[in-house]
């Protein structure tokens, strides 16, 4: 890090800009959480007010916890997200390692093919996916979702990770080979720890769309036992009446797991950036 | 039977032939240095010997055994890399011990060898540290220690000192020389630093564009270069090359080293004007524009007061002249 002196005015402006951005970014989240603790009337009358003694109410949370199996939805979402991230990182990193480390015919073509999915939205294949899942009897299982999300996350993972793996020192891998480490040991013990920041980036990019997805849970796993949190919250949004207390409470609850996961990954991200060089 | 035998080693990357048939014999306990310009294939040859790269054709024997199909870890070699290549997540001690651990060596034996190597390299105070907590010189010593504990038949060094500053380089060079005497091991060392090559080597292998130009002891290469390339590559400042015809000789090129020319104010063979003078303290380098021989570099020992534009006379030492034919081969 450079320790060059900056003028206080300059630093002030930088902080002002960052502060303003933070406020804008956090405001909706803040509003959601604040309003989830108010009664219905106060949500509409004074949406910007903090919950006071007269407006405080937990009715939203009560509805959420009574209606349906919310803990179950949570577990489903968490399971699907975590397993998908794990598989995306594992297979993505392995493919990236092969592409960046070994010279073989069609290497570049293979890399291009694996990254193609970044440009083609997986939803285009929904009908075929559904047919496939029906044929294999995977409809209404979490496995179906995990499979689809893994496929969805892999292209970006392969693309980002193979770029990063090219930067890992050849000498280090060769030193491992001379010391008798197997290719798997070189991958898991030498290369993976060095690309941890990239893995964290991929994890964050993979996690958010999976956690928020409504499309595939609705189509592939709408059964009560396999509902995810996003799908589960939909019961409160009706065509004519929407239970805002419940919606806001459900959303507030849904934020926390992602927040925790994000914090885990971002710690890695920052550590990676600050720990610096490979050498 | 030698420690290493290479026969007709060729290596191509796609259509690009990087090694063009290398034959080499290295005797037990020899310190062999590969020198050559950047990109001539020194590292590639070293990696082929280590087994990190497959040769396209040819045979490699280490200690008499053909090793073409043997993985790097089982070839009985150890390698020290330019970038140290220490495992960042392991302590100094574990860095040194990993190879032995992978080979299934007993714990007590690993301890003993690590202790011995770290004593040799004065690394004892740092055994519990990680590489990121060491200086460049210490890291390079750990890398050398990691090679020593394997007790290999063959040490391979790929420009191990080029990331160190000048003072540290001299110190580590001495340490490597001492190590070679103590271990009596066979070592192969790549560098493009001439001083390293001349001071450390029993035998220097000069490579150019993937082929061996000459193999010999440092003094052989200095005194009897086999061709123009070696003559120009060994020695600094570079040997003067003069067209044979200008000096009334029948050969294509005449070579004379700057230190084999004497300078005089009033008489000599070649009259010339000094165009540039470099004072290095121990040496004075004079660049002369002569009528007879063109631009000539002269190296004088000690301090001399020659100024640009001075008229001086240069006299080459006739016994130290090198003569080359039209193909660049030395005529003896
Ligand atoms: N993996 C590779 N693929 C294609 N070409 C390569 C590869 N590795 C090396 N080369 C080429 O082989 C030639 C020799 O490379 P090498 O690294 O052996 O040179 P070197 O003599 O060690 O040079 P330096 O002194 O700069 O380290 C170079 O022209 C290089 O471009
Ligand atoms: Mg090299």
UniProtKB/TrEMBL annotation, chain A:
<keyword id="KW-0472">Membrane</keyword>
<keyword id="KW-0812">Transmembrane</keyword>
<feature type="transmembrane region" description="Helical">
    <location>
        <begin position="186"/>
        <end position="211"/>
    </location>
</feature>
<feature type="transmembrane region" description="Helical">
    <location>
        <begin position="12"/>
        <end position="34"/>
    </location>
</feature>
<dbReference type="InterPro" id="IPR035906">
    <property type="entry name" value="MetI-like_sf"/>
</dbReference>
<dbReference type="GO" id="GO:0055085">
    <property type="term" value="P:transmembrane transport"/>
</dbReference>
<keyword id="KW-1003">Cell membrane</keyword>
<feature type="transmembrane region" description="Helical">
    <location>
        <begin position="246"/>
        <end position="265"/>
    </location>
</feature>
<feature type="transmembrane region" description="Helical">
    <location>
        <begin position="78"/>
        <end position="99"/>
    </location>
</feature>
<dbReference type="Pfam" id="PF00528">
    <property type="entry name" value="BPD_transp_1"/>
</dbReference>
<keyword id="KW-0813">Transport</keyword>
<dbReference type="InterPro" id="IPR000515">
    <property type="entry name" value="MetI-like"/>
</dbReference>
<feature type="transmembrane region" description="Helical">
    <location>
        <begin position="142"/>
        <end position="165"/>
    </location>
</feature>
<dbReference type="GO" id="GO:0005886">
    <property type="term" value="C:plasma membrane"/>
</dbReference>
<feature type="domain" description="ABC transmembrane type-1">
    <location>
        <begin position="74"/>
        <end position="265"/>
    </location>
</feature>
<keyword id="KW-1133">Transmembrane helix</keyword>
<comment type="similarity">
    <text>Belongs to the binding-protein-dependent transport system permease family.</text>
</comment>
<protein>
    <submittedName>
        <fullName>Raffinose/stachyose/melibiose transport system permease protein</fullName>
    </submittedName>
</protein>
<feature type="transmembrane region" description="Helical">
    <location>
        <begin position="111"/>
        <end position="130"/>
    </location>
</feature>
From TrEMBL, chain B:
<keyword id="KW-0067">ATP-binding</keyword>
<keyword id="KW-0378">Hydrolase</keyword>
<keyword id="KW-0762">Sugar transport</keyword>
<dbReference type="Pfam" id="PF00005">
    <property type="entry name" value="ABC_tran"/>
</dbReference>
<dbReference type="InterPro" id="IPR003593">
    <property type="entry name" value="AAA+_ATPase"/>
</dbReference>
<dbReference type="InterPro" id="IPR015855">
    <property type="entry name" value="ABC_transpr_MalK-like"/>
</dbReference>
<dbReference type="GO" id="GO:0016887">
    <property type="term" value="F:ATP hydrolysis activity"/>
</dbReference>
<dbReference type="GO" id="GO:0055052">
    <property type="term" value="C:ATP-binding cassette (ABC) transporter complex, substrate-binding subunit-containing"/>
</dbReference>
<dbReference type="GO" id="GO:0015423">
    <property type="term" value="F:ABC-type maltose transporter activity"/>
</dbReference>
<dbReference type="InterPro" id="IPR047641">
    <property type="entry name" value="ABC_transpr_MalK/UgpC-like"/>
</dbReference>
<dbReference type="InterPro" id="IPR008995">
    <property type="entry name" value="Mo/tungstate-bd_C_term_dom"/>
</dbReference>
<dbReference type="Pfam" id="PF08402">
    <property type="entry name" value="TOBE_2"/>
</dbReference>
<keyword id="KW-0547">Nucleotide-binding</keyword>
<dbReference type="GO" id="GO:0005524">
    <property type="term" value="F:ATP binding"/>
</dbReference>
<dbReference type="GO" id="GO:1990060">
    <property type="term" value="C:maltose transport complex"/>
</dbReference>
<comment type="similarity">
    <text>Belongs to the ABC transporter superfamily.</text>
</comment>
<dbReference type="InterPro" id="IPR017871">
    <property type="entry name" value="ABC_transporter-like_CS"/>
</dbReference>
<keyword id="KW-0813">Transport</keyword>
<protein>
    <submittedName>
        <fullName>Multiple sugar transport system ATP-binding protein</fullName>
        <ecNumber>3.6.3.-</ecNumber>
    </submittedName>
</protein>
<dbReference type="InterPro" id="IPR013611">
    <property type="entry name" value="Transp-assoc_OB_typ2"/>
</dbReference>
<dbReference type="InterPro" id="IPR003439">
    <property type="entry name" value="ABC_transporter-like_ATP-bd"/>
</dbReference>
<dbReference type="InterPro" id="IPR012340">
    <property type="entry name" value="NA-bd_OB-fold"/>
</dbReference>
């Amino acid at each position: 890090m450079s320790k060059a002196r900056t003028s206080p005015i300059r630093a002030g402006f930088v902080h002002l800009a960052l502060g303003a951005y933070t406020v804008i970014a956090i405001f909706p989240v803040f509003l959601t959480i604040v309003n989830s603790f108010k009664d219905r009337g106060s949500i509409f009358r004074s949406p910007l007010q903090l919950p006071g003694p007269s407006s405080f109410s937990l009715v939203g949370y009560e509805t959420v916890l009574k209606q349906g199996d919310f803990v179950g939805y949570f577990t489903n979402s968490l399971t699907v997200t975590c397993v998908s991230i794990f598989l995306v990182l594992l297979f993505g990193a392995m493919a990236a390692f092969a592409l960046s480390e070994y010279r073989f015919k069609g290497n570049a073509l293979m890399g291009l093919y694996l990254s193609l999915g970044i440009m083609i939205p997986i939803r285009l294949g929904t009908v075929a996916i559904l047919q496939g899942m029906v044929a294999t009897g995977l409809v209404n299982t979490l496995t179906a979702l995990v499979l689809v999300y893994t496929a969805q996350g892999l292209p970006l993972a392969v693309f980002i990770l193979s770029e990063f793996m090219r930067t890992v020192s050849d000498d280090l891998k060769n030193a491992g080979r001379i010391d008798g480490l197997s290719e798997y040991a070189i991958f898991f013990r030498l290369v993976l720890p060095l690309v941890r920041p990239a893995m964290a980036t991929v994890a964050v990019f993979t996690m958010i769309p999976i956690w928020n997805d409504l499309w595939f849970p609705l189509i592939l796993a709408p059964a009560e036992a396999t509902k995810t949190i996003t799908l589960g919250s939909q019961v409160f949004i009706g065509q004519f009446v929407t239970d805002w207390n419940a919606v806001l409470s459900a959303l507030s609850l849904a934020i926390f797991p992602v927040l925790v996961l994000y914090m885990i990954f971002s710690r890695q991200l920052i550590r990676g950036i600050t720990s610096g060089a490979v050498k | 039977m030698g420690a290493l035998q290479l026969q007709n080693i060729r290596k191509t990357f796609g259509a690009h032939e990087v090694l063009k048939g290398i034959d080499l014999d290295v005797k037990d306990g020899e310190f062999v240095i590969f020198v050559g310009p950047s990109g001539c294939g020194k590292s590639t040859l070293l990696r082929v010997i280590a087994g990190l790269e497959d040769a396209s054709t040819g045979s490699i024997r280490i200690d008499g055994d053909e090793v073409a199909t043997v993985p790097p870890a089982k070839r009985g070699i150890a390698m020290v890399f330019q970038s140290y290549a220490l495992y960042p997540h392991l302590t100094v001690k574990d860095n040194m011990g990993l190879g032995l651990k992978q080979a299934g060596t007993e714990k007590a034996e690993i301890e003993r060898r690590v202790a011995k190597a770290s004593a040799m390299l004065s690394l004892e105070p740092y055994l519990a540290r990680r590489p990121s907590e060491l200086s460049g010189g210490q890291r390079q010593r750990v890398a050398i220690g990691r090679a020593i504990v394997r007790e290999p038949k063959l040490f391979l060094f790929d420009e191990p000192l080029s990331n160190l500053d000048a003072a540290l380089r001299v110190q580590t060079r001495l340490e490597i020389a001492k190590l070679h005497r103590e271990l009596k091991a066979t070592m192969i060392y790549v560098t493009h630093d001439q001083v390293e090559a001349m001071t450390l080597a029993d035998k220097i292998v000069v490579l150019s564009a993937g082929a061996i130009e000459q193999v010999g002891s440092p003094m052989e290469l200095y005194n009897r270069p086999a061709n123009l390339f070696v003559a120009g590559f060994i020695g600094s400042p570079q040997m003067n090359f003069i067209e044979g015809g200008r000096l009334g000789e029948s050969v294509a090129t005449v070579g004379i080293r700057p230190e084999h020319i004497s300078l005089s104010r009033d008489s000599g063979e070649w009259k010339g004007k000094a165009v540039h003078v470099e004072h290095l303290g121990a040496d004075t380098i004079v660049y002369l524009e002569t009528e007879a021989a063109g631009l000539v570099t002269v190296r004088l020992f000690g301090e001399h007061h020659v100024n640009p534009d001075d008229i001086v006379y240069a006299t080459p030492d006739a016994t130290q002249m090198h003569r080359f034919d039209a193909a660049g081969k030395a005529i003896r």
